[in-house]
Amino acid sequence: MTGRRPAGGESARKIAVLVGAAILLLWTVFPFFWILLTSLKSPGDMLSVPPKFVFSPTFDNYAALVMGEQRGDYASTRPDFPRFFLNSIIISFGAVALSVAAGIPAAYALARFNFPGKDALAFVFMSFRFVPFIAFVIPLYLLYQKIGLYNTHGGLILAYQLITLPFTIWMLRSFFQEIPSEIQEAAKIDGCSWLGVLTRIILPLSMPGIAVTVILGFIFCWNAFNYPLMLAGRQTFPVTVGAIQFISYEQVLWGQMAAATIVAALPQLILSLMVQKYIVRGLTMGAVK
Length: 289
Prior knowledge:
- This protein is mostly helical.
- It has 2 domains: 7-67; 81-281, MetI-like fold (Orthogonal Bundle), CATH 1.10.3720.10.
- The chain is built from 14 helices and no strands.
């Protein structure tokens, strides 16, 4: 006799998997869905008990982010959200560009060169991801106050290297190691220096991996909260810190804060879709050929 699994058991297993996946999806998506509903509600609908799922939507919360004016019940004294959004773009792009410029040669050296202490140095870079942020932010705060980097874009870009640079080095190192060494040796035989191998061979073959690293690094920078909370002022707040400016001792502007959250999440959603495309393309498919 062949030990065939009963068809009913296989169907029950598939149903259980689908139900579990549906519950997990609901658990993950519902908070974002609730924030979206809140951003479209009037103050009366927000505070209703029980909560309303059917209501007349309004875009006044989004308009208040930009206008910063008195709009009926939507009193806004914080019209700085466009500045916060621009700050996030400047700081995130600047931090990622700096980390990629410094991380590519470092990752290439750790992936292809042999020198004493290479593995220990790679672990030191990775260890920065394990250290609590408070171990860095207090010295940085004192240092920035003395040298004039507090409440500046440049100061935040440098501080964000503690987030992006170790991640960039480790990601790119693994991508560079995936490229067959035969390609590098062939380029050296043709007369390429290590810089020529990096720019003409390694980087073109690693573009999907570099794109993934850039996008994930951008998301990490965009979501950073602790460093800008301590090292930035109102002129350089990113959206993560700017969103909590809608909380005051007088009131909490729930609608505007929810609208700010939705607007701040859009770049990450777009870039997440881009990540999927680059991951599917693969990294070194057909490189040896």
